[in-house]
Design goal:
This protein has 338 residues and is of the alpha/beta class. The chain has one domain (31-337): TIM Barrel. It has 13 helices and 12 strands. The strands form 2 sheets. Strands 1-4-5-8-9-10-11-12 form an 8-stranded parallel barrel, surrounded by 9 helices. Strands 6-7 form a two-stranded antiparallel ribbon. The protein is globular and about 70 Å long. The protein binds ligand PBG. The site of ligand PBG has 11 residues, from helix 7. InterPro entries: ALAD, ALAD_AS, Aldolase_TIM.
């Protein structure tokens, strides 16, 4: 495109004319953020009356089931359509193969049932992966050399997906990055009458240090120790793989995709959205939350403005929505600003 045609030079063109005041700024706003775009990730633990702050995520708590019901109600009040549940599993229940992940009476199925009983209209999404349940903190089952076994892991993930679907989950979100898992999970959901269970695939999940505070929250940091997830999550320097992962997941039956982490990976988000045009979500992950929170608690940046700015950037880059620990705060700000 020849930019001369569209942009005469100064003084015929003064870009600042269109930034002259609030009325014109509002008229020309290209991207919008609404509470409809937000998914709130929540940490859940056994017990009663538990509301414990995650030390590396000020303002974010681990809740017991009774306490999470208040949060669920708040989400509904604020217009947040969906929550994403992550379990904090007691260390005595962690094993080599993460078998607790398919316990029908486990923490996640019980939480889902309780929330759905009170608030059937609230969308619930659950993570499909083994890391909260394994003693080594990896997302799958290991062989003797410590390598994560693909196909054996998928068997467990498929059972986990069916269990969550039977508990009433609306969206299952495999975050494990095993090859071929979406196809097998979709096939099993279909043949078990869970035809409308949505699959939101973590297609472009990078092997990222931005997940640190999340691993503290679900208490898997001590399990993972110095280990990493490089044999299944994507190398941060690569984008071709992310596009191939997205293509594979869509072909296998994913309804929606996630790109993760968020802000540092907006280029990946934009590429995938432009290429496939399927609902594509960004995950503003724990480390991103902690960096913003730490700086704003120190008075180094303006909390409210940074939250809204970071979220609108996801929308501008093409995200249909954002999983963000700021969901409650952002929804309150959006309500106040309207
Ligand atoms: C694990 C999982 C992780 C996150 C969501 N699901 C961490 C990991 O892969 O180690 C990270 C979320 C966050 O950092 O906020 N299946």
């Amino acid at each position: 495109m020849n930019s001369q045609i569209f942009s005469p030079s100064y003084p015929e063109s003064r870009m600042r004319r269109l930034r002259k005041g609030d009325f014109i700024l509002r008229m020309l706003t290209e991207s919008n953020l609404s509470t409809n775009n937000l998914i709130f990730p929540l940490f859940i633990v056994e017990g009663n009356g538990v509301k414990e702050e995650v030390s590396s995520m000020p303002g974010i708590y681990v809740y017991s089931i009774d306490e999470i019901l208040y949060v669920a109600e708040k989400c509904i009040d604020l217009g947040i359509p969906t929550i994403a549940l992550f379990p904090v599993i007691d260390s005595t229940l962690k094993t080599n193969n993460g078998i607790e992940s398919i316990n029908a009476n486990g923490l996640i199925p019980r939480t889902v049932i309780e929330i759905k009983k009170r608030f059937p209209e609230l969308g619930i999404m659950t993570d499909i992966a083994l890391d909260p349940y394994t003693i080594h903190g990896q997302d799958g089952i290991l062989d003797d050399s410590g390598y994560v076994l693909n196909d054996e892991t998928i068997e467990m993930l498929t059972k986990q997906s069916l269990l969550h679907a039977s508990a009433g989950v609306d969206i299952v979100a495999p975050s494990d990055m095993m090859d071929g898992r979406i196809g097998i999970i979709r096939q099993k959901l279909e043949s078990n009458e869970y035809k409308n269970t949505i699959i939101m695939a973590y297609s472009a999940k990078y092997s990222s240090a931005f997940y640190g505070p999340f691993r503290d929250a679900i208490r898997s940091s001590n399990n993972l120790k110095k280990g990493n997830k490089n044999s299944y999550q994507i190398n941060p320097s690569n984008i071709n793989e992310a596009i191939r992962e997205a293509a594979a997941d869509i072909t296998e039956g994913a309804d929606m995709l996630i790109v993760k982490p968020g802000i540092p990976y907006l280029d990946v988000l934009t590429k995938i959205k432009e290429k496939f045009r399927v609902p594509t979500f960004a995950y503003q992950v724990s480390g991103e939350y902690s960096m913003i929170k730490a700086a704003s608690l120190n008075g180094w940046i303006r909390n409210d403005e940074i939250i809204l700015e970071s979220l609108i950037c996801f929308r501008r880059a093409g995200a249909d929505g954002i999983l963000t620990y700021f969901a409650l705060e952002a929804a309150e700000l959006l309500r106040k600003n309207n």
